[in-house]
Fold this sequence. Notes:
Largest sheet of chain A: none
Largest interface: A-B, 36 and 36 residues
Structural class of chain A: mainly alpha
Oligomer: homodimer
Distance between the termini of chain A: 45 Å
Amino acid sequence: MAAAVHRLIAHDGLDAATMSAVAREAGFSVGLVQHYFASKDDLLLFAYERLTADLLTRVAARTADGEAAGHSIRAIMLDCLAELLPLDPARRGEHRVSRAFQARAMDNPTAAEVAAATAAVLRTRVAQGIANGKECGETDPTTDPDLAATELTALVDGLADLVYRDPTRATTAGAILATRLAELLPGRCRHYD
Amino acid sequence: MAAAVHRLIAHDGLDAATMSAVAREAGFSVGLVQHYFASKDDLLLFAYERLTADLLTRVAARTADGEAAGHSIRAIMLDCLAELLPLDPARRGEHRVSRAFQARAMDNPTAAEVAAATAAVLRTRVAQGIANGKECGETDPTTDPDLAATELTALVDGLADLVYRDPTRATTAGAILATRLAELLPGRCRHYD
DNA sequence: GAGATAACCATACATCGGTATGATTATCGG
DNA sequence: CCGATAATCATACCGATGTATGGTTATCTC
């Protein structure tokens, strides 16, 4: 059902995610949707939580892959942050859904909590990466991990909007991200190559 | 009428900007609103254009003020970019409206054009500022103005969302912006002090 | 296998939103 | 002053939406 909500929003916006439309898209009746979700708000909130959870899971997977492959922190972070850019149709759709919910979060306290929590988790992980970079020699010891993480997450946030608006600038966005990461993690890790 | 739309969206979200609500808020009848706007889409589009025009005007005014006062390009840019952050109730409201329209722009081509055009104007102006910085010695000659401008506008975009979500991080956001500007325009202007 | 619980559906209802219509009043040029 | 144009309003209409209701079928427990 969450997938149905996602498809509808990705295709026609939040307003298209009506009860009957969701039921139709999912192949069920309206009554069934009501059986599982007491209200439309509940349904949308669930779909939102599901979306952010999927995203964080994907990022975690890319991190794990990168670590397993012995990549530098900088490479892993670039991989993870680029994952957040709407670089292909699937992620463009996801971006549409995500932005729709973020707009909704401005009037819906519970949705705002989800948005804030997701952003916090992401920032914390990036900060952890920077902190790790200090220990292994990739990062300048004077760099403030939280400040750098805040900047990076805000930057990808803005770049995602840019890439969505103008896909032809995708490579530009990628270059900006890579350059900034190279400035923030300039060193060579002393553990890996 | 545009002001009424803005007030409603700022207070209760885009969905609150219904025809009758706008009419009531503006102190007119529904018929009058229809008299001036053929459809609700037209009304919202007008309100959006009005909003972005106001914003760009304000930024231009800050630029002019800064130039008149003989400030450095870096100081002027910090002033202009900080203007885009939701640092007070008025700008928080404006941010809500702006984000609501940006979300709408994802399904509304004409609104998307407005959003893209506004972003382009902003980026162009920032790029011009960086280019000027080269001529007067504030910027490293190897800096790509367009790339730097793209990064800066994306950064403020993301920082604006952050500050909106968590106003306690307003100073953090300001510090990040100031630091990044100091990195991009490190020199002293040879014309002014 | 009986009974309870969950899954599932069709439909009715009340509300609300955008738009269409028709009329009434003001403004103003000639 | 008068005709036309603009301003302004009240209301009717249709479609859509969220939700409530009542019922039917499946599933599982004892």
